[in-house]
Amino acid sequence: MTFLLPRLPGPACDVIVRRFLEHGPSAWGGFRPDYLPDQVRFAATGGAPVPATYLASVRQDLVAIARKHGFGQQGARQSHAGFDAEAAAWLARSDLFTTGEALRDDVWAFVAAVMAPDITYWRFGSSTERYAGGVRNTFQRLWMRGRALDRGPGHPERWGLLDALTEDALVQITERPSIGGDHVLALAVAEVWLRAARHHGKGAMEDIMRRAILRIRVRNEIRSLADLPPGDLATFLDGVFGVPEGPVDQAMRPLSEVSFAEAARNVTQEARRRGWLSPKSQSALENLAEGHAALERSERNALDYLLGRLSDSGLLAQDISELREALSSDFATTESSASGPERPRRRSWAIWRAR
């Protein structure tokens, strides 16, 4: 069942936050999931309101993570960066924040201003933008980081990028919709940042990162970088960041070495489960699973649409990239220059609000 999350409109958020800050966190009465503020709303359709027990569980887990990093403990060593990394991974894994509800600013305003204003205050004090919804929201920004920089469940250091990157690097990636909203590109930029930091040193990375992001954004408007084969994308980004040419460290590769036959089987299984598999896309995937990359135009178009749909949903990023690489290499040898312009790629970040 799809659960609808509580929404706190902007004006109501301003009132609640102002009252909270006037009296201070010590006077806060705590979170009562059974008695939400009158201003809180739920969507009229699309699912059932989330049970109060689920909200209480989210609050409990966030507090537990915060306490591990010094929240509510006098004299304890405060580790805000540690909290950010662990909470980002937890939010990205949470089943409650996997639907479109998590894309709404007013949902995160509820989390920061009603569910956990004490954690928000511990993390950012009286900065009101950290309570309101948006890319600066205390928890929304962490969820965006976790979703963008997830290396995948099969990676031995799945959430390592959240710990390794500096705050400036994380902001540069996730607050740029054209980068942070594209999982493949965001992950590749984060991985090359690590390689560049090893080469240049972390102290030099702030200026390098800001110049590189400008070049990446401009180039991405001309050619969709996420559609490049992984090796070509890594080579381009290494050049932008000034990383010397050489073999890419396998531990730092943005994508796992998965055969396109295996990727085709994974995509087939997921698409069938969601009811998205058409006869043409199924035929294309069956050919790829058998090791044949030469597809008819109709099969290629159907598969391209399916991969775009899965990518927009944040699913199977590694498998999708592997299939796109196989298709692009075959396309270069089988299509003539008169075949017409390349179809524009659907942007998964279009639903993210630019701030």
From TrEMBL:
Residues 344-355 have a biased composition (Basic residues). Residues 330-339 have a biased composition (Polar residues). Residues 330-355 are annotated as: Disordered. It comes from the Bacteria. It holds the Pfam family DUF6339. This is Uncharacterized protein. It comes from Rubellimicrobium thermophilum DSM 16684.
